[in-house]
Amino acid sequence: MNAYQIYQSADPALISDLLTWLRAEERDLYKNTVGSLAQDRKLRPVFVQKKSLPDQFTWIHKTLKLKSTDMMGEHLLQLWFMKGQEEILVTFCDAMGIEHDGKGSVEAELPEELDGDKSKEAIDALLAKFDAKLVTAYLHVFNLQKDGGWDCITSALESDDRLKLA
User: Fold this and answer.
1) Which of 9, 50, 115, 131 fits a 20 to 30 Å CA distance from 125?
2) How far lies 91's CA from each of 13, 54, 94, 108, in Å?
3) pLDDT digits over 62-109, tens only?
4) Which of 67, 83, 76 is nearest to 25 (CA)?
């Protein structure tokens, strides 16, 4: 699943959480994102900036559902998980035995293969601590880090009824 497809499938409340965090913690990036998305749609940024905040979020979410914004959408998701959702990264990396910097940032290369049993345990650990929609979004974003993703993560996303974006 590509980033734009994550935005297409995700619960709007999850995307609202992402955008609320982005606007509060990365204000310049939020403004640049609005500008870039407006430009992609051949609009002036002021068109979006004049909207109420809920309407801005709705417009941004709608625009991130487009294939043309896939790269930007993926970047926003990665940033949100790296800076705004560190605990989920740490929990997953610890459960998988992936070395990280204590904040969930992997310092070496991600492994080519992941242990299926460990991944099931890691997913259970994530679901015990975090909202299932957030976990599902994280697993989709994590799976984007390798061409074709990891088979055990892909399989879990396809078969585990707890892992739904909407």
Assistant:
1) 9
2) 23, 32, 5, 17
3) 999 999 999 999 999 999 999 999 999 999 999 998 888 887 788 788
4) 83
Burial code of 1-16, b = ≥16 C-beta within 10 A, e = fewer? bebbebbbebbeebbb
Give the pLDDT of residue 29: 96
Model confidence pTM above 0.90: yes
- Cβ atoms 21, 13 nearer than 8 A: no
DSSP state of 52: -
Is 114 within 8 Å of 145 (Cβ atoms)?
Answer: no
Q: Count the neighbouring beta carbons within 10 Å of the beta carbon of residue 142.
A: 21
Which among 110, 144, 101 is positioned nearest to 3, based on CA atoms? 144
Whole-angstrom Cα distance, residue 67 to residue 6?
A: 11
Cα–Cα distance, 32 to 80 (Å, whole number): 15
DSSP 62-111: HHHTSGGGHHHHHHHHHHIIIII-HHHHHHHHHHHT----SSS--SSPPP
3 state DSSP class of 59: helix
